[in-house]
Amino acid sequence: MTDATAGQLNVAILDDYQQRVTGLPVWRALPEGVRVHAFSTPAVDEDELVRRLEPFQVVVAMRERTVFPARVIERLPKLRLLASTGLRNASIDVQACKRQGVVVSGARGARNGRTSTSEMALALTLALAKQVIPSHQALLEGRFQPLLATSLAGRVLGLAGLGNIGAQMAQLGRALGMNVIAWSPNLTAARATEHGATAVSCDELFQRSDVLSLHLVLSERTAGLVSKARLAQMKREALLINTARAGLIDEVALLDALREGQIAGAGLDVFWQEPLAVSHPLLKMNNVVLTPHLGYATEENFAAFYAGVVENILAWMQGRPVLALQEA
Questions:
Q1: 2-111+298-317: what fold?
Q2: Active site includes 245?
Q3: From 136, 293, 300, 327, the catalytic residue
Q4: DSSP alpha helices (H): ranges in 240-298?
């Protein structure tokens, strides 16, 4: 690459919220003359994003935090490599990148990255069932035991999706003594049995679950799965957990269900727009537990992600194949 060999390669790292990415030792593998700059806050709009990224030939994107539609890609004529963490990033228009001659790469996370997501789903479940947040707040205010907790043993854990993360969640649920049921568009009874779950229909999943945890890939078939009609099927004491993708849930329908007490509560690690706006109605509700997309955000995962990113940058500079991003 001409810019790279001339020592004029500029690399932008997006969404370094913790301001720690450039401190990782993996960046030392890049040759001298490569300038790396990290942005710790998201751009307020597409125009600001374009202004920020105009000088850069390489942009490093964190999973699906920043959206790269065709209209943004086309306004970045210097961009030559868009290096994403993760192996999927639905926020990048890969076809637009191809048209503009932009190489797109992905990077694998740590071995325990998926385990971390199932752990987060369990943490949200326990926080809701055990009234952790309001009880903590009550103690700070001098009130003791204002609420009763719920036991999970003997309850029904419903899993929408029984892939790697869903299977790990099934194991955690069984460890708590929960009865595990599962559904997905392609789930077989044999796979469900293999992971200690019972395969059910989609209707049964929503009707029977005391805790419904989502672990599906977002696609045309699964988008908006948790609709107004599906929420109406759920028990009033049921909890909804989402550590997968926000698009699996109809946002307006969920807000209405939470306001009306149609379900008991929701634990959410993913949102329809991230970062979550401070004015979002969820932040005013007392029957939710919210975390800022922490399911995959671990020290080990980030170290692995950026090691893969650096390897892709080096491969691109040297004319070698990069690890291709899987198209959504």
A1: Rossmann fold (3.40.50)
A2: yes
A3: 293
A4: 251-259
